[in-house]
Design a protein that fits this description.
The protein is an alpha+beta fold. It is 52% helix and 8% strand. The protein contains 18 helices and nine strands. The strands form three sheets. The chain has a four-stranded mixed β-sheet with strand order 1-2-7-4. A three-stranded antiparallel β-sheet has the order 3-9-8. Strands 5-6 form a two-stranded antiparallel ribbon. The structure holds protoporphyrin IX containing FE. Protoporphyrin IX containing FE binds next to helix 6, helix 13, strand 4 and helix 18. Belongs to the cytochrome P450 family. Its cofactor is heme.
Length: 513
């Protein structure tokens, strides 16, 4: 047999051996803590091999799903020195992440390789402790987004403006009778709205929004399981030529431009009497007592670029999943259109209409459950040793809520792999209240002190998009290609899983076809 020891083969072999040794070393070190009554879970070499294989194939959530079936409601394992505890039920997620006895101990996140590398050693808003600085940043986020009072009107105007452009674009395409590339048209509007939220104004040219998206995709690649799990255990891998170094280099390469657009350009034209968007809110606040830490530009840059990361692909996934699912469920589309005709007639929806358009709201909740495109969430760090259900969870374990598993567990959801908005409605067709047991089992936005602060923004925006587009068009499968499957397995695998590109036909409502 002729073995060809090319540089790539040697590199791969070297990397695999080095990684296996690193993981094994940490696992042996962790054996001494075995005396504790830790929750069940995979152990030893088999755990490492399965994890390495899954991270290579970007299928850690699938592995977590299988393990949850094997090990039950709570599981624990050690991956190369990082201790993980997965909560595989909504009850345990609520208890450990938000319960009175636990939440003070489980509200921290810690910097990991991605946050340290990308956001100046953890000067962001996500991978941080729940300390005074974090709470102040969250407060400024709410002040800047201001989805209350006049803020709602401003939000409706921004989204409405972008939707006008979307409809103009769609009208042109629909009039040619050609299929519409839905993901492209909607993504464009979504990213513009985020840039407006951050800067207070539209990107000065399309390339600016694209540059931010390019940076965002680079960070997502670095944060994806296949890369970051390995870099967490073996940070030195970033210096070796190959996929890990490439991922790190891409972040550095794209960061400068994104920060120039979101921060430096705004700083140059900042006027404290005329606050345009979130960047200005942060710039102004650094003059307030208690907010001096913001005089370090890296804190503001870290928050802004991290916000784009938190908001962009999650919103994109929700909106595109909604349309892809509607294409497969014409009955659901017809029900939404009935509700639009009954409640709105020809006027565009307002955010407050969410409270009376129960069916549309139920569809959005079911999209979040059925697709669960962000399957492993929360990622909190345990502050001290914990006892959960008689099990010992050591200090510094990472707690993860495995919503990818329990959002599809038949114990909580009847026929979980079917799309059924009715599960969120009562017998009178009213949306179940947020404290209803069914709603409480849906944890797409997390729970507790670190729950997603962008939930209202995200759900309101999807609502405005869906109602406006379905008010105008019937959406139908494409003529030029088979309809892409809407099954959650058929997704582009990354940290926040995305629909594959898809087309559809848009036919103006009421026109003969
Ligand atoms: C459907 C869309 C979205 C989903 C599913 C989602 C989901 C999540 C989840 C699961 C977390 C972690 C929560 C926890 O640990 O308990 C989170 C955190 C966060 N999200 Fe969202 N998110 C979405 C949209 C947004 C948007 C639009 C924004 C901003 C405008 C945003 C900003 C944030 C921030 C800043 C955090 C970190 C909060 C903290 O650590 O204190 N998200 N999100």
């Amino acid at each position: 047999m002729n073995l060809d020891w090319s540089p790539t083969t040697s590199y791969l072999l070297y990397s695999c051996v080095a990684l296996a040794v690193t993981f094994l070393f940490h696992t042996i070190l962790s054996m001494k803590s075995r005396k504790l009554n830790q929750p069940p879970g995979p152990r030893g070499l088999s755990c490492i091999v399965q994890l390495l294989r899954a991270s290579w194939n970007e299928s850690v959530p699938e592995l977590a799903f299988t393990w949850a079936k094997t090990y039950g409601p709570i599981m624990y394992f050690n991956a190369g020195g990082t201790k993980f505890c997965y909560l595989n039920t909504p009850e345990l997620s609520r208890l450990v992440l938000a319960g009175e006895d636990y939440r003070a101990l489980t509200s921290d996140r810690v910097g990991n390789f991605v946050s340290k590398f990308t956001w100046y050693d953890g000067k962001d808003l996500f991978f941080t402790k729940f300390d005074v600085i974090q709470r102040k940043k969250r407060k400024l986020f709410h002040r800047g987004v201001a989805l209350y009072g006049d803020g709602v009107e401003k939000f409706e105007a921004i989204v409405g403006g972008e939707l006008d452009l979307v409809l103009e674009h769609l009208d042109k395409m629909a009039s040619t009778g050609q299929d519409v590339q839905m993901d492209q048209v909607l993504s464009e509007a979504l990213k513009n709205i985020l840039v407006i939220l951050i800067n207070g104004e539209k990107p000065s040219c399309p390339e600016d929004a694209d540059a931010i998206v390019e940076y965002d995709l680079a960070v997502n690649k670095l944060a994806s399981e296949d890369i970051h799990l390995v870099l967490m255990a073996a940070p030195w891998m970033r210096y070796l030529p190959g996929r890990y170094k490439r991922a790190c280099d891409k972040v550095i390469e794209t960061r400068e431009k994104a920060e120039r657009i979101m921060f430096s350009k705004m700083k140059e034209t900042f006027d404290p009497k005329n606050l345009r968007g979130l960047t200005d809110v942060f710039l102004k606040s650094r003059e307030e007592p208690g907010y001096e830490f913001l005089k370090d530009d890296q804190h503001i840059k870290g928050v802004l670029t991290m916000l784009f990361f938190a908001a962009h692909l999650t919103s994109r996934a929700t909106l595109l999943n909604t349309f892809l699912i509607l294409l497969h469920h014409p009955d659901v589309t017809a029900n939404i259109q009935d509700e639009i005709d009954r409640v709105l007639g020809d006027r565009p929806a307002k955010v407050e209409d969410r409270q009376i358009m129960h069916y549309t709201e139920a569809v959005i909740l079911e999209v979040l459950r059925y697709t669960t495109f962000f399957p492993l969430i929360c990622i909190r760090n345990v502050k001290t040793d914990l006892k959960v259900e008689n099990y010992d969870i050591p200090k510094d374990t990472l707690i993860i809520s495995n919503i990818g598993y329990f959002h599809r567990d038949p114990k909580y959801w009847d026929d979980p792999w079917s799309f059924k908005p009715e599960r969120f409605l009562d017998a009178k067709g009213q949306i179940l209240p947020a404290d209803h047991s069914v709603r409480k089992n849906l944890l797409s936005f997390g729970i507790g002190n670190r729950m997603c602060p962008g939930e209202v923004f995200a759900r309101s925006r999807v609502f405005l998009f869906v109602t406006r587009i379905l008010q105008r068009y019937d959406v139908m499968p494409p003529k030029s290609e088979p309809l892409v499957s809407c099954h959650p397995d058929n997704r582009v695998k990354m940290l926040v899983r995305q629909t594959p590109p898809f087309r559809c036909q848009l036919v103006p409502r009421g026109s003969p076809n």
